[in-house]
UniProtKB/TrEMBL annotation:
It is found in: Membrane. It is a single-pass membrane protein. It comes from the Eukaryota. InterPro entries: SIM_Modulators, SMIM5/18/22. Keywords: Membrane, Transmembrane, Transmembrane helix. It comes from Suricata suricatta (Meerkat). This is Small integral membrane protein 22.
Amino acid sequence: MALPEDLEKELEATAQEVLGKLRSHQLFQSGWDTAAFIIFLIFLGTVLLLLLLVCIHCCCSGCCSHRTSRSRKVSPQQEHRRGVDNLGLEP
């Protein structure tokens, strides 16, 4: 079990290490660090783009009142039908 003093010293050492890297302008030790950071940024950008698209879809679905193919009238028999009829199963 870590004592609060040990935890404080560990956090201070980590903070000093990060600040030292910032001062020396050497944030990444190797090419793998750079690649991992780029992959993380691509992932973050993709998530933000998807969130933006969801927000646009939610906000504009009510204001765009054009009719789609889904909104046309369907008979009650065809309402629950999906897929393609398999005529091989017909007697």
